[in-house]
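Hey, can you fold this one?
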Amino acid sequence: MTSPSRADVVEKAAPVAEGKTPVGLAPRQLMWRRFRRDRTGVISACVVLFFFAVALLAPLISSLYGKDPYTTYGLDRPELLDPLTGYPMKPNGGIDGEFWFGIEPKLGRDVLMQLVYGIRTSLLIGLAATVLSTLTGIAIGVVAGYLGGRTDYFLGRLIDLLLSFPQQLFFVAFMPVVTALFVSPQKETPTYFRVTALVMVLWLLGWMQLARLLRGQVLSLREREFVEAAKVTGASPWRIVRKELLPNLGTPILVQATLMLPNFVTTEAALSFLGVGMVEPTPDWGRMFAKGANFYEGDITYMFFPGIAMVVFVVAFNLLGDSVRDAMDPKTTR
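Sure. Predicted structure:
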């Protein structure tokens, strides 16, 4: 037996040298390799993780910074605010070594702490709504697509009905109704109830697009050979869904979830901006925009930091969703 020539060795090693995908790697490893090569996706992931870290570590940041989002520093220290206009005495919204992002006009609360805790509030509500909407969309979409028939028809009409509602107007109109049903108008609505109501309203009108997408995917997958083979072996519907269908739905679920979260965060901020979401004194991203709209003529700096943070967050999450979709697509080469 003759040993392989140098040309044969070079020819066999060529695919790896040319950057083609090595044989034998698991799908998750291949996805991770493609994602790591996408600089935009990696940077976006770091930005998103930074926002979640800020939200999670808000109490620690407050302790290290030495301030909180509730104390009215401007009222406690008259030299910080102009007694006639209520705007910060120092330029650029009162930014200095003590107040890194300045202070709020009229009340003099620390802007940095309001923003940190506002991010915490908005991300908490958006994340809860995303989880509930994703689970509901998976359940209804898979059931409708796999069972078909009357079940598919009924669930399909339900999805069409809910999608017909103008969501933004429904959010604005429905929030006061929900609070009025459970809280007396003479009593102040507790913060926990406002958070719960916001999550429920966002959830009720947030799962339909994912459900419709998964229904179409399942309708296609249930006719594939591996599903038919599972049926022939006597596998139960639950086992088929869990072992055969759900693993093939990971890409649309993950991509849709990464698009849901920033959408829910901006919707929650819009509701607070319109006065039907979070209210004083709870820090909230949208409420900062609402206050900034009243102060921009005398202190545009107050709106600058929450505005930049919102734009960076939404753009980073959308870019991350695109990168995840490309990384999970086996046809993508990077």
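The radius of gyration is 26 Å. Let me know if you want another pass with a different chain boundary.
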